[in-house]
Amino acid sequence: MEQQGRKKFGAARILFYIVVLFAVIQIVPYGRKHSNPPSSHEPRWGSLETRGTFFRVCKNCHSNETVWPWYGSIAPFSWLVQSDVDEGRSQFNVSEWGRPDNRGDKAAGEVREGDMPPWYYQSLHPESRLDKDERAAFIRGLVLTFGDQSGK
User: Fold this and answer.
1) Backbone phi, psi, residue 118, to 5°
2) Which of 33, 79, 128, 130 has the fewest other C-beta atoms within 10 Å?
């Protein structure tokens, strides 16, 4: 009986430390800035359908029109969201088109290979899921708009 009491006390202590740690990490400011800088210039889209699909599926990480989720203000989730948006915007940002390091020519290949949008993003954002026909049309539109570095 005494051993069972120790186990309950040990579990309560662990839970207490987890709650304290969760509270303490909320002090870290990274991930709460949630800025959407002004858009400077968009690419010349191959079609309105491609633009519409892009803004439905990709805008949260690859434009300055991010819709920040509620969990994006709670550490450690805020850290992950901010990191994904920072990385996405640095690689490819349609709101800052004309920037020399914008890698639009990789977009079609990333979608074709299934790397974009990432599976974890799709699980939280069902609007980002593309069926086979939507994916094919989107890839064609991305190639028309940005070219295709992979050459496929």
Assistant:
1) -60, 150
2) 33
